[in-house]
């Protein structure tokens, strides 16, 4: 290292010799600011930060399992836990498109490959016989416990990638990294817009038509009416509670009309929460006569309607301030919903479901028969409702669920949703 010290000293002397006596050496130019944030890179950063946090939070459980001496039952439970975790977490990566930035796209590719490997290992583990469960669970736990901290690695990537750092720093799910040329104002506006878009969407899709549910309106399914109405009434406060928590966390941004809109929305939500029926359990509701249930559900629907956003809406308010408008354009929750693909694998041919496996597009509502079991699928802007003779299944965008009995299980997944048209995967097993 002696040559390096000599070179540094030599440069210092040369610099000193060039500066006139008594005059300070010229100041170095500040580094250029990073490229501005883009919607695509903010969305990428937000999805990746969420995934990284999920990986890091799952690691302690895997480390604990790897250091233990499990039996087959515990190994099987761990394998299934990982399989469920992989399915839920990897969804954040599915819709990410290439950015054209090599280190960013390389990170995406490596993470997808890692998830694919985990999925294969967990599927193989679930298929393995009881005697082989431990042998499959061990490598799966090692895969987690020996991997590097995901969030730290992502932060390092942002710091060394100039094209990414501005987007990373304003992404709601990310912790900003130090970078010259950025202040916190843009991030504050993006955070405000992101929460406001998410909460207004949630409030806009509140169900206020409980009597239109197929379980109530279709005589074939009225055995499920008590469950449908009882669940509607007992769960009505849940979305309002979530929205209230989010709106309460919003910091004022110093734009009078925007701050007033947020305050009014929070006040309406809290007022509606206070008016909802309190202290009635689902069991008690299911025992009420159907006419009383309908009346109570109608009352709840009226209360929920008061919490829906009023005009002028969020878009109109955002449009009045250029900086807030730009932040709104970056916030992941403010993106326009993806359009439903023109055709599903089986188009609109519902008869394809009789084979026990189909992907169909349904507009409005339709009866579907899969594996000899008939049920009704109803589509709204909030999601789909699946109703059979005694059950009701509500699915939001990207949601999936199943119902059935000892002889037949029907699994339904909402693939995409636009207005009153949805594409659903249906499998009977």
Automatic annotation (TrEMBL):
Residues 1-24 form the signal peptide. The keyword Signal applies. Keywords: Signal. This is Uncharacterized protein. The lineage of its organism: Bacteria, Bacillati, Actinomycetota, Actinomycetes, Pseudonocardiales.
């Amino acid at each position: 290292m002696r040559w390096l010290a000599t070179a540094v000293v030599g440069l210092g002397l040369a610099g000193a010799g060039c500066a006139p006596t008594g005059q300070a050496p010229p100041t170095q130019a500040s580094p250029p600011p990073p490229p501005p944030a883009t919607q695509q890179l903010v969305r990428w950063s937000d999805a990746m930060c969420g995934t990284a946090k999920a990986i890091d939070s799952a690691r302690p459980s895997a480390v604990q399992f790897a250091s233990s001496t499990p039996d087959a039952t515990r190994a099987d439970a761990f394998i299934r836990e990982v399989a469920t975790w992989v399915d839920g977490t990897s969804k954040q990566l599915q819709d990410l498109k290439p950015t054209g930035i090599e280190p960013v796209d390389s990170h995406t590719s490596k993470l997808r490959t890692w998830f694919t490997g985990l999925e294969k290992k967990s599927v193989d583990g679930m298929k393995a016989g009881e005697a082989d469960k431990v042998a499959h669970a061990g490598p799966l736990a090692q895969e987690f416990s020996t991997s590097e901290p995901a969030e730290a690695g992502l932060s390092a990537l942002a710091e060394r990638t100039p094209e990414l750092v501005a987007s990373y720093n304003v992404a709601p799910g990310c912790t900003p990294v130090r970078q010259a040329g950025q202040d916190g104002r843009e991030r504050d506006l993006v955070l405000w817009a992101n929460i406001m878009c998410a909460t207004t969407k949630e409030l806009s899709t509140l169900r206020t038509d409980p009597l239109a549910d197929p379980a109530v309106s279709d005589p074939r399914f009225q055995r499920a009416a008590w469950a449908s109405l009882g669940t509607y009434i007992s769960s009505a406060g849940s979305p309002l509670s979530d929205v209230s928590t989010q709106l309460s966390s919003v910091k004022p941004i110093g734009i009078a009309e925007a701050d007033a809109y947020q305050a009014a929305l929070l006040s309406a939500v809290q007022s509606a929460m206070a008016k909802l029926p309190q202290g009635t359990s689902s069991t008690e509701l299911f025992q009420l006569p159907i006419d009383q249930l309908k009346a109570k559900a109608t009352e709840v629907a009226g209360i929920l309607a008061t919490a829906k956003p009023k005009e002028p809406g969020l878009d109109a308010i955002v449009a009045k301030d250029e900086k807030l408008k730009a932040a709104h354009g970056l916030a992941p929750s403010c993106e326009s919903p993806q359009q439903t693909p023109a055709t599903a694998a089986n188009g609109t041919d519902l008869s394809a479901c009789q084979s026990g496996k189909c992907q169909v597009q349904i507009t409005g509502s339709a009866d579907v028969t899969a594996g000899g079991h008939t049920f009704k699928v109803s589509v709204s802007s909030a999601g789909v409702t699946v109703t059979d003779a005694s059950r009701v299944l509500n699915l939001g965008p990207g949601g999936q669920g199943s119902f059935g009995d000892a002889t037949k299980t029907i699994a339904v997944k909402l693939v995409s949703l636009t207005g009153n048209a949805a594409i659903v995967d249906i499998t009977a097993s």
